[in-house]
Amino acid sequence: MPHATAQPATTAAEEQSPPDIATMRAAVRRLLAADAEPPTPDELSTLAPLLRGHINALVLIVETAARHLPKDDVPRACAMACVGEARMRLRLGDGDTETVRAAVAVRLARSVNALADHYENLRP
């Protein structure tokens, strides 16, 4: 009779498929590229939730990867600071005017970009 072996515990970050960094960076470029045109109100209404989703997808993965580094490691501290900043930006409201909505979307895009950088730098 074969013995059942316990599988190692996995975290939610390890169970999900890898994030599509290329797609995330394409959304970021729409707002952060040097030659980017200001987004239309319709674009803002789809970009902001998209960027929030990208942040949610990356935060746990980056945080989990950073926690595997030594506590006094500089890349760990940078990644954890980025995670904290991204979570703070998720709490930003959408804004009452198009100008504020655009500013919030730009901040979200910067967080996606930074988290994607940390994701790429912390991968084994």
* Topology, number of strands: 0
Mean pLDDT: 89
Strand content: under 5%
Q: Give me the Rg, rounded.
A: 17 Å
The 3D shape can be described as elongated
- What's the number of helices? 5
What kind of oligomer do you see?
single chain
Structural class: mainly alpha
Largest sheet: none
Task: Sketch the topology as an H/E string, one letter per element.
Answer: HHHHH
The percent of residues in helical segments reads: 55-70%
Flag low-confidence runs: 6-10
Distance between the termini: 37 Å
Region (Disordered): 1-20
Organism: Streptomyces phaeoluteigriseus
InterPro entries: DUF6415
Protein name: DUF6415 family natural product biosynthesis protein
Features of the shown structure:
mainly alpha; 5 helices
How would you describe what is shown here?
This protein is an all-alpha fold and 124 residues long. It has a domain at 41-122. It is built from five helices and no strands. The protein has helices at 12-15, 21-32, 41-67, 74-90, 98-122. Residues 1-20 are annotated as: Disordered. Pfam families: DUF6415. It comes from Streptomyces phaeoluteigriseus.
